[in-house]
Amino acid sequence: MAEPKAFHHALTILEEVCIGCTHCIQACPTEALRVKEGKARLIDNRCIDCGKCMQVCPVNAIIIEQDDFEDIFKYPVRVALVPSVLIGQFPRHYPTRKIYSGILEQGFTHVYEAEHGASLLIQKINELIADPNRQKPVISSFCPATVRLIQVRFPSLVDNIMLLKAPLDLAAISFKKELLERGHKEHEIGIFYVTPCASKIAAIKSPVGQSHSPISGVINLDTIFNKVYRSFKKEEKNSCIVPEKEQLREEEMTWSLTGGESRYIHGRSLAIDGRTNSIDFLEQIENGTATNFDFIEVRACDESCAGGILTTANRFLTSERLHERRQKYQQDKTDGKLFDNKTIDKHAEYVLEHVNIEKVEPRSMLKLDEDMESAMRKMQRIRKINSYLPGIDCGACGTPSCRSLAEDIVQGKGHTSNCIFVQHALNKPGDKPSRADNIWGEDRFNELLD
Amino acid sequence: MDFSFDIQGGDFMQAGSASSEVKKILKQLNLPPEIIKRIAVAMYEAEVNVVAHAQRGTMVVNIDSEKVHLKLIDEGPGIPDINQAMEEGYSTASEAVRQMGFGAGMGLPNIKRNADKLEIDSKVGVGTTVEITTFLK
Questions:
Q1: Is the peptide bond between B80 and the residue preceding it cis, with omega within 30 degrees of 0?
Q2: pTM
């Protein structure tokens, strides 16, 4: 049975820029890239949209496709749904309000922070944790790259994923509801999410466990940052549009940072960030060695969304700024200077009706065949072919490792002669040591021919 | 289909590496995720037991369309009283080993819970053989 082709990937390889250098294929945590005809190619159903490839590309040939900024003007009501890490991109002397009025200057009619709703989620997650029949540990669904990583590499853990929407969906649902109540028509409202990464785009364009997203379009965080920061630098005479005064709660301000969720969850919880760390820890959960956890927060990027691939500022400085904002909130609270007039609280009941997502389906990328006996035959061939390959994992054949070349060969997607070492061994004239022998030793090539 | 992995006694850094390899194989063979999870837990416990107690050991994995059969053969102290070792909480691990997070006395009971069939054969002073069978149908 063929995998359904329903994976929207925002990551796009620019063919005319790609030099086929193989950096990306070796960095990809799900072996979702190959080099063919001198260009990197993405294997759709393996890619989890984590953006590692984009980070390592030496010529910037991998970009994140976004909606055309001018699209926002198709709507009379234009909402910028912004992640709190956006503030962290700006130098500290720019206050939050200035940044938000800078966004409005770009043509939006409203700015709304994407973490509104996290406080509602805390309550829902704690209800899940309290359920004794619930599969533990509950793994957060916050990071779309993590959800996809589990689907393709850890299919046995899909039932651990909490089936709740992320704050950004809840924020969009509640703000849309608010605008409708204020008398705007559904078709007049355009909600544009300003994304710090590729996986959020994939989650909006082809959501897992929900049929559609209330979000109309996506703008990359660096695009917005560049526009706004430039306007500050040019000291354009701002008309000083004042954003609606609505504050995130303290727990929402740092929700997207590492530990942002786990800090508020009852029971034993842990926060993991970074791709390699995530994979290591998911292995442990699968082996049953990390046991007795109630909740695990797993984020693909180092320092979570502060390290999103579309961020421009240093992740640690971003994180620091958000923590300072939280401390200021706590101080204001103590001083009685807070207005707690959250739109989302008004619509809490409505939002909570829409908080659940459907079951997340596994889609293993590792399986060699649907049928176990065919898979066994393929595995035997792979082992045999692999034993002939040099084990250098040089990537020159266009696959990430010798093992993956062996797998591609057996799946009919590659050929033994793609290996430059095999070619060299076959073409070697006479017994005279070659230059390659000086590097790798003569035996290595003789072994290939045995 | 057979696979064989060596296990080094006393090397906790390497504990679990054989299990990881086997787990990958099971995923490639497209075994149902629930079954893989049970095997992974049983196999890991058994591998750590060898690392914790024996000088060296081997894990032999045999897979066919009916079952996954794991056989862990070690050269080690052996188990004097298998019934006692099967009790939850019974452990001979030293304080140092317990501090590393091992030796809680849940190993064998945990293997039993996650196996369809568990056979243990042991000779004191010679070694232990643990066989774990999981049926696929």
A1: no
A2: 0.89
